[in-house]
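Entry:
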Amino acid sequence: MSKKYEGLVVLDTKGNETSIDELISEVGQLIEAEGATLDEVTNLGRKKFAYNARQIEGGHYVSYMFNAAPAAISSIKTSLDLNESIYMHQYRVQG
């Protein structure tokens, strides 16, 4: 039984030559590779952090709405942890 999730991903574009659109697409493909189906991707833009964490002043925020089985979330977290372009990611169940 799948549930609807929202994933908030903060991209670290510092020193990265790949365009933002390509990074957003790449993260979406990683999510779909774990068995999820994307419903909506919203580019929230670049925002500054309240303090400089890990020598980074800000990040590019992207919201991913998708359907997935609850067991797939741990697989998605693991695959996104390995991506160096991702600063932070978190998930919550919708509805």
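The beta strands are 3-11, 37-53, 56-68, 86-93.
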